[in-house]
Amino acid sequence: MIFSALTCLEQLMDINEESCHRIMHYKELIEYISKRAVKDEELSQNKIYCSELLAIVIQNSAHGRKKFGEINSLDKFLKVLTQEKYREKFSLDDIEYVGNIFNIICSILFEEENKETFYKLNGIEISIKFFDCHQLRLNTIKLLDVAIMNMPESCKSFINSNGLKYIFPFLILKVI
User: Fold this and answer.
1) What are phi and psi of 139, to 5 degrees?
2) Which of 46-55, 69-78, 91-100, 161-170 has the lowest mean pLDDT?
3) Which of 34, 101, 102, 134 is an S-S bond match for 139, by CB 3.0 to 4.6 Å?
4) Are 146 and 106 a contacting pair, CB within 8 Å?
5) Residue 26 has pLDDT above 60, yes or no
6) CATH number, span 2-173
7) Is 85 in contact with 127 (CB distance < 8 Å)?
8) Is the CB of residue 51 less than 8 Å from the CB of residue 68?
9) Are 130 and 140 in contact (CB under 8 A)?
């Protein structure tokens, strides 16, 4: 039943981008989707779907990016990444879920003021740890690209965290 309701929401968002802006004004709905996406429970289709919907809403709504930057959501999403990092093996569902969390964080970071918060939360260091997971390297590169753009402090943090050690092989060998 929840999955069907989430499907209806996604179809509304597919109609036009204005739907995303309108959905952001339904505080209870966004809180439910957000809490469900980061809830510490077994991975389910509903949890994955909530993370996907949240990624779509935040990506298409400047208001959403600002709002999620203001309410300490970056901290919640970085905690999810930290927890997921310690998995020994990633299933396809795990990869989809973590990819959605990466997309959410990337979208939030499109607002310049959120990049400072990401830096203060050690987001660069947390992200670099995902280079070890082959399936998530592209997501990691995308996130780091957005995070260090126009942020000298984040660039220094990236270098000091040995981020260049992971990036250079991709540049030299063109293997991703």
Assistant:
1) -65, -40
2) 69-78
3) 102
4) yes
5) yes
6) 1.25.10.10
7) no
8) no
9) yes
